[in-house]
Amino acid sequence: MRARLEVAIRDVKARGYEVVVGHCMDGAGHVSAPAADRAGELMSMLTDPGIRAVAPPWGGETAIDLLPLLDWDRLRDAEPTWLVGFSDMSTIMTPLTLLTRTATVHGNNLMDTPYRVPEGLLSWLDIAAAPQGHRFTQTPPNRYRSSGWDDYRAQPEVREYTLDTAGSWTRLDADGDVEVEGRLIGGCIETLCNLTGTAYLDVSAFARAESPEGLLVYVEAAGDDAFTICRNLHGMRLAGFFDTANAILVGRTSAPDAGSLTQHQAVLDALGSLNVPIIADVECGHVPPYLPIVNGARGRIVHTSTRSELTQTLD
To answer: SS3 string of the chain?
Structure first.
């Protein structure tokens, strides 16, 4: 899919940026280079004052192998650099925000950047270019792609999302309007569940230091069936991941239901006892389009019968 990568790089350059392509770019296997090489390159990019954002093309399925190799003290002391990604990159981005207090963007991968952004949403490029203190609101386009993916090998220049199905946000726990605030943190369930109970995912400590009024926690299922997601969410809850949540956002998913348990029911089974608003089918999952969420930003969720929106402040 190198041709698609070149299209994405050209689009970033068209916004006026220089692009530095790393050396760990071998796409033949499940990782692009040995863990030490990838960790060294990521450290170099995140601590280089000339690099303002790092956006992986794709991947990160086993990025957990990087965590013990990163110099967290050095990252904490470095001038902040945006780390942008999606899904598996939660493995790195969420700990980076929790441990260093550096904001990260869970939005989309570099390969998705050429798509035209639907009305109401923003590109990660818009967010990364915003000044400190910037406040922005995103609203769902109320349409999504129900199945399939574009073939970047056959159509490397594709720029239009196929949004073929109507769909809006869904409150799972109860009826009624929601208006709630808190700092945002979260990511992909299948990757973050492996970090619960470790020093890399101490959400409660982050909340005590940065958001004693509580958090807005978002999660999304990539592809695991409903029973697996249910078990993973139960484990994350028992480990304290949701202890300080004022509300929980759940990404829209195409992951399979499991006989007697749907994906929505899996979330309620694991998290319904928290007695906080749970809003599902948010555009922060594996189903296009994508609503970028900034880990560490101050957020405000409004969800009524006539309006749904997420406002974020880069403070």
So the answer is: CHHHHHHHHHHHHHCCCCCCCCCCCCCCCCCCCCHHHHHHHHHHHHCCCCCCEECCCCCCCCHHHHHHHCCHHHHHHCCCCEEEECHHHHHHHHHHHHHHCCCEEECCCHHHCCCCCCCCCCCHHHHHCCCCCCEEEECCCCEECCCCCCCCCCCCCCCCCCCCEECCCEECCCCCCEEEEEEEEEEEHHHHCCCCCCHHHCHHHHHHHHCCCCEEEEEECCCCCHHHHHHHHHHHHHCCCCCCEEEEEEECCCCCCECCECHHHHHHHHHHHHCCCEEEEECCCCCCCCCCEEECCEEEEEECCCCEEEEEECC
